[in-house]
Amino acid sequence: MRILTPSTRVFLTLTTLTLAYNIHAQDQNLTLNQDPKFEQLLNDKRKINTSINTNDTYRIQIFSGKSDEAKKTLNDFKREFYAVDGTIIFNTPNYKVIVGNFKTRIEAERNLAEIKKKYKSVFLLKPGK
């Protein structure tokens, strides 16, 4: 390691302070011009989303864990059970793979028995859950 002379240290310190004095990060103001209809559309979308009832069918959860593993599990599931629909839902702190859209419990339990052969931590989700 090289030791600097006192005059070199003073010169480098003054140069650094001079350069740092002229730095201004995020110095500008941002003005956002938003169409007034946007807020109305957003409120209409919120009303529609609250009126949609997606929890009236039985579903099966086949995985809960990290994002990458959830994506891999869903892809593997879709390859083997191509007739059954599936999706990934984020529920803090885990990603859950939920499959099926079964109207009756009997139909859901039949599929549950088949899916249990391939996936170990599988359980049935009742409507409204």
TrEMBL record:
It comes from Flavobacterium cupreum. Keywords: Signal. PROSITE patterns: SPOR. GO terms for molecular function: peptidoglycan binding. This is SPOR domain-containing protein. The keyword Signal applies. The keyword Endoplasmic reticulum does not apply. Gene3D superfamilies: Sporulation related repeat. Residues 1-25 form the signal peptide. InterPro entries: SPOR-like_dom, SPOR-like_sf. Residues 52-129 form the SPOR domain.
